[in-house]
Amino acid sequence: MDIISDYRPIIQNIRHYKYRYLVYLSGRLGLAKSTNIARALLTIAMMKRLKIACVRETQNSIKDSVHAQLSDEIINNALPFEIYKESIYCPATGSEIIFKGLKETNQHNIRSMANIDVAFIEEAQAISTTSWESFAPTIRKAGSFIIIAGNPDEESDVVFQLFGPEAPRRPDVYYCYKDFRYNPFKLPKSVLQDIAMMKANRPDDYERIYLGRLRTAVDMPVVRSWNPEKNIGIGKESNTIYWSLDFNVNPQCSVICHWNGGSDFYFSDEIVLENVSTYRVAEEFVKLYKKKYDGRPLVINGDASGRNRSSNSEFSNYAIIEQVLTKERIRFDFQVPKANTSISNRVNNFDWHVRGLDGKPHILVNPECRHLCHSCKLLSYDKNGNIIEVPARPGMKTIDYAKSHIFDAASYCVMTNDPVLENFVKVEKPRTQTIKEMWELSLRKAAGGGVYV
C-alpha cells in the first residue's frame, strides 16, 4: 500500500516509540488523511498484537465511522483481516479494531478503554472539551498513543487550542499541517479542475476548504458571498411556487420562492408579521396567493419543528396550514424534512448558491423582499459565533431589523430542494413527510400521545 511519508511516523512509532500524539490538521480535502491513516492502522495491526480504537464525537451507527474506509482497503489489497459488523480482526497477530462514539459512550465505559494501544480520533474538530478530558487520560497503557485527524473550523476547537500552529510545541507530538498541494500522489484531473474553479471564483472557500484557514467569528457575515448588484433583481417565475416557513418565532417569517429544478432560486415575496398565530400567517398567504399565483401548484417547505403542536393550538403548525389551504381549495403538497440539518450546513448551503462554484449567482431576491435583502447583507456572527440581528438603518424599529428568521425560512427552501456539498456536488435530499403523516402525528399529540384510529 502506498502511504504518504507524513503518515509513516505512525508505523515507526510502533517500532521505536517517540510520540504520544500524532496530529494531522489541514484543509478538508486533497491530502487523503483518512486513506493514509487507514492504511497505517492496518499496517501496524499486522505487525504486532494491538487493540486499536477508532473514535469520533458522535457515532449514531457504524456507517458514521471509518469502518467502511478500513474495509475497502482490506478488500482492495487482499489483506489478512476478518471484517465484522462492528469490529475488524487480524487472525495472524490477534489485533482488533473497534469503533466508538464518545458522546454515546458514558464516562464509565470510556474509562474501561484503558487497555487501548492506539486511538484514532477522526473528525477531531468536532470533539468537545468534555469528551477530550474524559477520553485522552484513559489511553494510558505503556507505549500507547493517539492519532488526531481533523479540519478545524474555529479557533475555539479544542484540538486547535491544544495542537494548532499557535499552541506551545511539545517534543512528544508529531505535527502535520499540510494540504492537498503536498500530496505526492496526483489527484484526479476532475478534482484539480474543481479546486482551480473554487480558487478563481470563491477564494475564501478555497482557503478554508483546501488550505485549512480558520473561520473567525468576529465581524463575520453569515452570507459571505452576498452581492446586492448580482443577487437582487427580478427573476423568472416557475410554474410551481414554493412557500417556506420558520416557526415558533416572532415575527413569523415566510418566503415565496421559484425554483428552476436545478440550482437557481428566485425569492419573489415575503410575509413578516408580528404577534400573530399560524392561522393568521396562513390567511395572509391565501390573500397573496389568490392575488398573484391563483391556480398554480404549491409546495410547502420549512422548519421541521412545524410538525410539532403550535404553542396556541392543539394542532401542529403544518396541520393548521393544511386546514386553511384545504378550506380555500388551494392545491398543495408538503416537502418538509423529518429533522433539520445543522445550522452551519444550512448556512453554507445557502451561501454556495448565492455565488456558485462557477462564480455565478444562483439566488436572486426581489428588491421588494426588503427583510430578506437586509438579512442576507447584514446578518453577522458575534464573538461567540451566535447570529445577531442588526438594523438596516439607524433608528429602525425592531420589525425592520435584518431578521435571522426570514433568512432561516429562505435557507430551509434551498436546503430541501437543492442540498449540495462543499464542491457543489449534489447530495441526497432530506427525507420528507407526507400530509397524511403530519396530520396523524398532530392528532396523536393532541390526544396526549394515544394512537389515532
Percent range for helical residues? 25-40%
Number of helices: 15
Largest sheet: 8 strands, mixed
How many distinct folded domains?
2
**What is the global morphology?**
elongated
Widest β-sheet, arrangement of strands: 3-4-5-2-6-7-1-8
Draw up the topology in text.
Layout: H1 9-15, E1 21-25, H2 33-47, E2 51-56, H3 67-76, E3 82-83, E4 87-90, E5 95-101, H4 107-111, E6 118-121, H5 129-135, E7 145-150, H6 158-163, E8 173-176, H7 189-201, H8 203-209, E9 220-221, H9 228-231, E10 241-246, E11 252-259, E12 265-273, H10 278-292, E13 298-302, H11 317-327, E14 333-334, H12 343-354, E15 363-365, H13 370-378, E16 380-381, E17 387-388, H14 404-417, H15 435-446
Parallel strand pairs: 1-7, 1-8, 2-5, 2-6, 6-7, 10-13, 12-15, 13-14
Antiparallel strand pairs: 3-4, 4-5, 9-16, 10-11, 11-12, 16-17
Helix pairs in contact: 2-3, 7-8, 10-11, 12-14, 13-14
Quick structural overview:
By secondary structure, this protein is an alpha/beta fold. It is 32% helix and 17% strand.
Keywords:
about 450 residues, alpha/beta, Rossmann fold, Nucleotidyltransferase, domain 5, six-stranded mixed β-sheet, 17 strands, about 30% helix
